[in-house]
C-alpha cells in the first residue's frame, strides 16, 4: 500500500473535516467582499527581502509556512509523533496533540488535530527544529526530502519567485497555504490537470490520480479520507511548483493553478482568495499562452521609396470610401456674424495670416468657413484639397473635430487622430489612409511629424498631401514647440501649403521677470508671424464689428484677493522645526564639501532657519528656500565626491524637499491632506535603494551615513502623533475658506453656475476635488456628484493622469450642468468649450499673460467673474503684471495693423531671413560635428558588457534613441510594461529592456512592424575608442551625450531594415515577451474603453 494511504493505520486515528459544515469552516476561511474583509484592516508584517538564491540551502532558511506545506508528512499520526518530537516541542504542545487524539468525536478530533499542528509549526524557530528532527528520524522523510528544499535542480528560479511572492508572502493572507490545504476540493484540480496540453502538468495528475479514484477511497473511513485529501492538497501545490514545463514558462504553474481552481464552482473561491481579480489575470494569461504558441512571424515591412514622394495632393479616393453620410451636398450649418466675416476675409483671399480674436468670439466657426471656402475653391478648379487642423492637446482634438464635423457635414468628411482610437480597431488606426481619405483632419502636431518621418508605406504622409494648415492656439509656435518643428519642414520644402493661425493671446514674448517693453512685444509678434510663414495679422478693426463682438463676447470682471496664511499654525511650525533639525544634522557633512572642493562656496550651504516670529513655517515655503535647495542639489550632483557622501546628502535634501512641499500644501489645503502627503513621501524616502541594509554596518562609511539618515527619518515619524493632534486645529486655511465662500456666493447669485478652479499640480487637482466634494455645505448645495476634475491624459493614473474618455465625459457633464465645479490644471486653459462658465477661480495659480487671457477666457457667460486667490503679495503682483502685459499686447497688435501691408511684410521677411540663417548655421555646426566625431562604446553601467557603438545609435522622432545593433538583443530580457492610455506617439511601448545583469537598458517599442530597443541615458557608460578611456558618468542625459560626446542622427531606412527581424532572430524568448506586452496593452485599452462606454451609457440613462 502507498504511503499516503498506509499512513492511516486505523479508522479512529483521525477524523474527517466536513467541508460544508459552517461550524468548522469559519468565516476566516471564506472569501470576503470589501465590506467584511477583516484581514484587510489588520496590520500586515513587513515583506522580507526576496532570497538572493533559489530554494533553501538549509532548514534554517525555511519559513514556517513553507514547512507547514509538508505538515501531513511531519505529523503523520501513523508514526509515533509524540515520541519523535518530545524534546523539540513544548509540553503544552504535546498535551494539545494528546488531547486532540483522545477526542472521541471524529469530527472534533480531526478539526483539533489540524489546528494543533498548524499552531505548533506557527513560528520559524519551532518549525525549523521540528523539520530537522523529521528529516533525521522520520520514515516519511526519504520519499519527500528532495522536494522539501525547493533547490536546484528540483525547482526553477522563476517558479520559486512566484511561490515566494504569491503564496509565502500573499499580500492579504499570511496563512494562504494553510487555507488551501485545509479545505480545497482536490478532484476538480486533478481533472483540469488531466487534460492539460503541458506534459509536465499532466504528470502531476498521473502521480496523484490514484487518490481520487473511487476504488481508492471506498474502503477508507472518513478520517482516512480527510488525511489523504490533506496530503494530496499539499502535494498538488509542491508538484506544480517543481514541475518543469516545456511549452510553458516555469512561473506559469501559478496561473495553471488559478485556471484549475476556476474550472469548478467548488474550487473557484480559492482563486478568489488568491486573486480577487483572477478573471482579468487569467484573460491576460491566455493572451500570453496564445502568443507563446504562435510561430515566429518574419516581417516583410513595406518601406517607402524616396522616389515615390508625390508633388501634389493625392486624391482621397485612393485611400478608401467616404462614409455614407458624406453626400457632398452644400453645407449651410452655420451663419457668420459680421465681425466673424471680417476675420475670414484675408484667409479667404488665400493669404497666410494669424487671426487674433478674444476667447468666445467663435474662432472655430471662422475656421470652418475658411476651410470650407478653401476646399470649395479647389474643387471648382478640379484640384485636390485637404486641410489639417493642428491643436496642442488631445481634448481639443475631440472638441474641434466635433465642431468642424457638425459645421461641414454632409459636404466634407472630417477625421480626427488623437492616439486613443487604436483601442477600438483590430488593425492599426494610425495608418496614413486614415488621414488621407478625409477632407479635413484634426490632430496634434506630434502625430503628424511622426508620420512625416515614417519610412513605412502604411504610415507615411507628405507635406504635399495637404493644401492648408490651420494652427489652433498658434501662439505656441515658439522655438521648441512641435508647431515650430513642423514649420521647419515647411521652410525647407519647395511646397508651401496655405497657413492660418488662430489665437486669443499672441503674448508679448517676455518672461514674468522681464520689464514690459513695447519694442520687444512687437518683435515677438513679428517672430510668431515669421515662424508661421504668415504675411499679415487679422483682428477686428471695423468699429461696428467691434461693437457687435463686444455684445456677444463677455469679458469677465477681474478680482484679486490676498488670503495670507494664519500667523499661528502649530502643524506648520512643527514641520519647519523639523527642517531646521535636518539642516543641523547634515551641516558637518556639507562643511566637508566647502573644505574638500575648491570652488564650493559656503554660501551654497547656508539654508534659512526659522525666526522667533515665524510660527507658521513661511520661512520654509518661500521661493528662495526652494531655490536654495535646488541649487545645493544641483551642485552635489555635479561635483566630484565619493558616492556615499553624495547619496547621503541627496537623501537628506529629499527629506527637506518633502517638508517644504508639505508646508506648501498645508498653506493651500486642509492640514490633513498635507499630513497624508508627508506620510506617503516619507514612506518612499525611507527605502534606501541600492543601500538598503547598508545601515547594519556601522563601522563602514555608508553604514554610518545610513544610520544618520534613519535617525532623521525616525525623528520625523516620531512626530506623527503630535502632528496628528495639530491637524484638526490647522485644517482651516484662509485661502481654502475663501474658496468655499466664493463658490457658495456664486451659487446664491445663480443656482445653475459653472465654476472652474485652476490649480498648479495634477495631484493637487485630484485631492482638492476630493476635499471639496466631501465638504458638507458644497454637497448640500450642489450634490455629491457635482465636483469633477480634468488633468493631463499624457500621464498614467498612478501619476494622477486620466484617460481621454474620462476627460471628455467630465467636460460633457460640466457643459450639461451635471457637474457644477471643475478643478483643472493648465490643460483646461486653451480652447475647451465651456460656454456657460461664469466663475473662474485661480487658486494661488498664475502663469504668463497668455495663461491669464486663456484662463479668464474660460468664463464666457454674461456677468462672469475671474478671481485670483493668492497667499502672498508676490502672486498678486504677478497677476497685476499679467493684466498690464495684456494691455501692452493689445496696443502692439493695434500698432501692427496700422502699418502698411508693405511695411509689415518687410518686417516679417527680415525675421524669416534671421530664422533661416539660424537654421543654416545650426545645420552647419551639426555637420561639422558629425564629420569630426569620436567613436565610443556604450557599455552597461553595471556589468560593463558592450551594448553598441556610438555610430549604431539613431534618433527616432526626436525623443527616442534607438540601439541599431541587432546582436544587442542577445541574452537580454524584456519585462512587462505596456501602454494603457494611448498617447500621441506612432510607436507603442512593448516592455522594459533589461541587461543580462538586470540593469535597465531602456524600453522596447513597436514601430511599424519592427521591435526596436531604446536606450536610457542612465543605463550605459561611455568608453572612448581607440584609447579605451572610460568617460566620467555624472548622470548622463541625452542632451549632454549628444552635445558633449557624439551626435545622433535620425534613424535611416537601412537601419530599420536591419533591425526589423533582429529580435526574433537573436532572442526568441524576449521576442515572445514583446509580443505578449503588445497584446496585453491592446487588451487593457479595449477593456478600459468598454468600461468608459458603460459609464457614459449609465450617465445618459441617469440624466
Automatic annotation (TrEMBL):
SUPFAM superfamilies with a match to the protein in the record: P-loop containing nucleoside triphosphate hydrolases (SSF52540)
Residues annotated as signal peptide: none
Domain Helicase ATP-binding: 344-524
PROSITE patterns associated with the record: HELICASE_ATP_BIND_1, HELICASE_CTER, RLR_CTR
Residue ranges of domain Helicase C-terminal in the record: 735-908
Gene Ontology MF terms: ATP binding; nucleic acid binding; RNA helicase activity
Any one annotated GO CC term: cytoplasm
InterPro entries given in the database record: DEAD/DEAH_box_helicase_dom, Helicase_ATP-bd, Helicase_C-like, P-loop_NTPase, RLR_C_sf, RLR_CTR, RLR_Helicase
Catalysis: reaction(s): ATP + H2O = ADP + phosphate + H(+)
UniProt-listed Pfam families: DEAD, Helicase_C, RIG-I_C-RD
Keywords: ATP-binding, Immunity, Innate immunity, Nucleotide-binding
Renumbered residue ranges of the record's region Disordered: 1-45
Gene Ontology BP term (one): innate immune response
Domain RLR CTR residues, every copy: 922-1055
Family statement: Belongs to the helicase family. RLR subfamily.
Protein name: RNA helicase
Organism: Panagrolaimus superbus
